């Protein structure tokens, strides 16, 4: 069932768990995540970066693929199609393509401009019944060409953006996209706590969900994180399983080079990763 992310995240805040956003890149990724969500009876958010959208031919192709897959696979759990780290123009394209949710990443703008652009997009989303995520304080590391510094967000700025009426708020709390460096200082729970105190029941979003120790993830959920974004972990699982298949020479046995066989170990590995994350986030059985 394709829905906006609003209701599933409000329920997550009430129930003290988090919904996973898993980024998709192609048909196999999408199918793996949808089937796992159904098996786990978990709500799920499919994240689509602008780069991944382009790779899949465009946002209309993505929306049509997800929508048809939800129907033909008989997916009954709530599923949102969500633009990840969107530019203003990217947001407009996804609204036009029929996505159920967008993230406007205005963190690179001065706060006044971030506010103005976020406000315009909120008005459109409300009218269309879509949910919208905003970001304050750049998230570290690099994702799809977007490079963040990893600084902590200003809790007052978070309140300012939250009060505009967004449905979820991504705030930098020392989190980083991709693999965490050895000398990473960890999440700033002090910042997260201050943001939560000021924004109340606003679902908070933790980006860079790959490689954060489980105890930190659980503590973040306790402090109001209701959506956790995972991308790199699925890519690593997929690459690792595919490499093992090829290194074992399985692609050369029988019809092992058939893409339906070649891509299966990687697809199964994504399913396993998504399942483990859903269990950690506490969203299993919540659909
Ligand atoms: O927006 C997507 C994410 O924040 C994913 O981060 O690649 O570190 O898991 P990750
Ligand atoms: Zn992110």
UniProtKB/TrEMBL annotation:
<dbReference type="Pfam" id="PF01116">
    <property type="entry name" value="F_bP_aldolase"/>
</dbReference>
<dbReference type="GO" id="GO:0008270">
    <property type="term" value="F:zinc ion binding"/>
</dbReference>
<protein>
    <submittedName>
        <fullName>Class II fructose-1,6-bisphosphate aldolase</fullName>
        <ecNumber>4.1.2.13</ecNumber>
    </submittedName>
</protein>
<feature type="active site" description="Proton donor">
    <location>
        <position position="84"/>
    </location>
</feature>
<dbReference type="InterPro" id="IPR011289">
    <property type="entry name" value="Fruc_bis_ald_class-2"/>
</dbReference>
<keyword id="KW-0479">Metal-binding</keyword>
<feature type="binding site">
    <location>
        <position position="105"/>
    </location>
    <ligand>
        <name>Zn(2+) 2</name>
    </ligand>
</feature>
<dbReference type="GO" id="GO:0006096">
    <property type="term" value="P:glycolytic process"/>
</dbReference>
<dbReference type="InterPro" id="IPR000771">
    <property type="entry name" value="FBA_II"/>
</dbReference>
<keyword id="KW-0456">Lyase</keyword>
<feature type="binding site">
    <location>
        <begin position="208"/>
        <end position="210"/>
    </location>
    <ligand>
        <name>dihydroxyacetone phosphate</name>
    </ligand>
</feature>
<dbReference type="GO" id="GO:0030388">
    <property type="term" value="P:fructose 1,6-bisphosphate metabolic process"/>
</dbReference>
<keyword id="KW-0862">Zinc</keyword>
<dbReference type="InterPro" id="IPR050246">
    <property type="entry name" value="Class_II_FBP_aldolase"/>
</dbReference>
<feature type="binding site">
    <location>
        <position position="85"/>
    </location>
    <ligand>
        <name>Zn(2+) 1</name>
    </ligand>
</feature>
<feature type="binding site">
    <location>
        <position position="177"/>
    </location>
    <ligand>
        <name>Zn(2+) 1</name>
    </ligand>
</feature>
<feature type="binding site">
    <location>
        <position position="207"/>
    </location>
    <ligand>
        <name>Zn(2+) 1</name>
    </ligand>
</feature>
<dbReference type="InterPro" id="IPR013785">
    <property type="entry name" value="Aldolase_TIM"/>
</dbReference>
<feature type="binding site">
    <location>
        <begin position="229"/>
        <end position="232"/>
    </location>
    <ligand>
        <name>dihydroxyacetone phosphate</name>
    </ligand>
</feature>
<feature type="binding site">
    <location>
        <position position="135"/>
    </location>
    <ligand>
        <name>Zn(2+) 2</name>
    </ligand>
</feature>
<dbReference type="GO" id="GO:0004332">
    <property type="term" value="F:fructose-bisphosphate aldolase activity"/>
</dbReference>
<feature type="binding site">
    <location>
        <position position="178"/>
    </location>
    <ligand>
        <name>dihydroxyacetone phosphate</name>
    </ligand>
</feature>
């Amino acid at each position: 069932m394709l829905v906006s992310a609003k209701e599933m995240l409000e329920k997550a805040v009430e129930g003290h768990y988090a919904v996973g956003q898993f980024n998709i890149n192609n048909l196999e990724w999408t199918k793996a995540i949808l089937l796992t969500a159904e098996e786990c009876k978990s709500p799920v958010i499919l994240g689509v970066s602008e780069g991944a959208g382009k790779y899949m031919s465009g946002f209309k192709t993505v929306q049509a693929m997800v929508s048809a897959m939800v129907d033909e696979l008989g997916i009954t759990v709530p599923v949102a199609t969500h633009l990840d780290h969107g530019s203003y123009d990217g947001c407009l394209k996804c609204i036009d393509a029929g996505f159920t949710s967008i993230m406007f990443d205005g963190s690179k703008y001065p706060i006044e401009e971030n506010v103005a652009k976020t406000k315009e997009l909120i008005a459109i989303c409300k009218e269309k019944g879509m949910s919208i995520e905003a970001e304050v304080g750049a998230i570290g590391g690099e994702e799809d060409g977007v490079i963040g510094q990893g600084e902590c967000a200003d809790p007052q700025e978070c309140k300012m953006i939250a009060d505009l009426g967004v449905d979820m708020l991504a705030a930098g709390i020392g989190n980083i996209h991709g693999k965490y460096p050895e000398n990473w200082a960890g999440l700033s729970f002090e910042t997260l706590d201050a943001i939560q105190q000021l924004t109340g029941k606003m679902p908070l979003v933790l980006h860079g969900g790959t490689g954060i120790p489980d105890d930190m993830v659980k503590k973040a959920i306790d402090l109001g994180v209701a959506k956790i974004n995972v991308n790199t972990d699925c890519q690593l699982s997929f690459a690792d399983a595919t490499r093992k298949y090829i290194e074992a020479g399985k692609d050369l046995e029988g019809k092992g080079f058939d893409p339906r066989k070649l891509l299966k170990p990687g697809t199964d590995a994504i399913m396993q990763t998504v399942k483990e994350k859903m269990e950690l986030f506490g969203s299993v059985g919540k659909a």
